[in-house]
Amino acid sequence: MADHRDDAATQFSRELLARVKRLEIRTSHLADDLFAGSYRSVFRGRGMEFSEVRRYYAGDPINSIDWNVTARMGYPHVKVHIDERELTVLLVVDASGSVDFGSGDTSKQELAAEVAGLLTFSAMRNNDKVGLMMFTDEVEKYIAPDKGRKQALRIIREMLAHKPESPGTNIGAALEMVSRVLHRRAIVFLISDFHDDAYLRPMSVAAKRHDLVGVRLVDPTERAMPPAGLVEFEDAETGTHRLVDTSSAEFRLAFEAALAARREEQDTEMTKRGVDIVRVDTDDSPVDALVRFFELRARRAG
User: Model pTM greater than 0.85?
Assistant: First the structure.
């Protein structure tokens, strides 16, 4: 029996290593080629770092004059600052039961891993610190932000290997943990399908302290339900079952409208709190969605 367990563990380790390698190759390549530059231009550093004092030239802002040096030297000097480029990025990833779903080739869970990989390698290329928090109805894993390829591979490995302890969702608890563990301003990507309520208050607190971006994961059936006849639906988080007739056009339209209204209401409330939202569909390229977001945000900032 022990040998059988050892063989199974070895096989799992090999499969996990292969999955990590595949995701590293795909996401690292895409991060390099498609939007590493956009990442750098959109997310500025924590502030301005002092560089030098130099002589004043016409056109320099008056409020940059260093009056102590000016008095000592006898003619105006200004302080020169540069962007402090090092950022801290935290990926807060929903691992609940509703994310472990996919009607096509890619599940929301797999999409979350790819989005996290793209953002991880973008941060790594920019020499930024990156960390991971995975949550269900409580925070199940936390990896403090750090730099380098070893950290990036650890984040990918932990995401792919993680087995959730609960099917539930509590976004508020995750955001409260974010506010406790991050003491300096950071970029926080909240990757979730947002099948939850009662998280707006902790979201407001987190958004005031950090640059908070919500990455919404959407399956095609959450946009348009196919007419598949009688279908038994199971709530992935509560386990409850319900038999519905999806051949009814009236039911499908009502279902789609309810989901769309819920997403719109959530997006409106998050936007009010200063949270940016990126929608990523399982049947679309996450790279395209992130590039569109980066370009839109760069135009807005410019």
Answer: no
